Amino acid sequence: MLLHPEFSLGASAPWDIHPDVSFGLGPTLSKSKCPLPSPMPEPPETYGEGPSYIVYLSEEDIKDTEAALRSFQELGLGPNMLEPATFPLSTELGNRLRSVSTTLHEGIGFAVLRGLNPKRYNDEENLMIYAGLVSWIGSERVTNPLGMSTEHIRNATLDGKPEGIDESELEPAKQPHKMNFHADRFMADILALHVREKAASGGEQYIASFQSIYNELMVTDPEVLAILAKDWDWPPSPENPHSKPIQAPVIFSNGKQVIAQLVWAPFVKRPEYMTAERKRALTTVNDLATKMCVKIDTQVGDIQLMNNLAMIHARESFTDTATKRRHLVRLGIRDPEQCWKRPKGYEAQFETAYLIPLDEQIMPEQDFDPWNTTSTAAAHYG
């Protein structure tokens, strides 16, 4: 099923997006040269007070957060039960975090909370603080089908392959390779990443507004938008490898916003599903994103937040050492008060990850089984 009639080059774009609702990063962010050649200028030597997307946590905010941590610990609950009601913050900090949700849904689509020092806390406390703070931005949390909601993004190849596993491959989040621009398809409205440690070298992250890319393609190559808006055949889930291909487009419209759920991983694992037409569309978007992206200013302790329906992201390859290993912790969340409307006919695909309630979720503070149990990633991520 097509979301719109077929059209040719030079025809109107699939959906008319009024300039007033254009969802872009805008000129206020400091832009840097991306991994591939780009006309964008090199970043300044210093950001001064930092890019405009950074929300700084003061010492008072940290004290407030630590008080909320102690309050939660006194309840004797597991991290899966973290929500605003069990992680009480001051009105001022709570309102500031609620405004971050507005930024993610109505503003630039990206924010960073800065000021936490992971070395002050143990693994469980770090997870509780992180999940508690982001619950104020999005109180609903996603899981995989087993109820796992925490994903530890790191190089698990250094752990060695367990005995008895011959054909299983680590998901992209567990490998150090470069990743093209993508969304985490049907995973979450908002991606949250807590930076526990940076790599010894590499691992730079980049984000791009798909709305900006969409607007560019409306003018320069609308045929690519037509390809992305068609129903594609997607490989069946690993749980049902012999079932029929899943049909869905790459981009959707909910009547107000364009939603991008672009990924590469399924076609890397199952190249028979990649056609010349699809490769052209994915490559065109990746090339534009590379030219239009913003390099994320990253420090240890940061909590990165991005609208996973509006932004696409990429990562450079990285190298770890024995004493410095890249480690990010990912959560997928949704703000029921501000979340975007689901595209008609595809509601179920966007809702699947939210079906397991908080009291049945699992949130390990360590990545004890990256080949299986503690991987939330599915075949359509990355």
Name its key features.
about 375 residues, globular, disordered N terminus, four-stranded antiparallel beta sheet, 17 strands, about 20% strand, Double-stranded beta-helix, seven-stranded mixed beta sheet, TauD-like_sf, 8 helices, AlphaKG_dependent_hydroxylases, alpha+beta
What is the multimeric organization of the chains shown?
single chain
* CATH architecture identity: 4-Layer Sandwich
Domains (count): 1
Report the sheet with the most strands, covering strand number, pairing sense and barrel closure: 7 strands, mixed
Distance between the termini: 25 Å
The count of strands amounts to 17
CATH topology: Double-stranded beta-helix
Give the class from helix and strand content and strand pairing. Answer: alpha+beta
List unreliable stretches of 5+ residues. 1-49
Compute the gyration radius: what is it? 20 Å
CATH C-level class: Alpha Beta
Q: What's the CATH H-level homologous superfamily?
A: Clavaminate synthase-like
- What best-fitting shape do the alpha-carbon axes yield? globular
Which band does the percent of strand residues land in?
15-25%
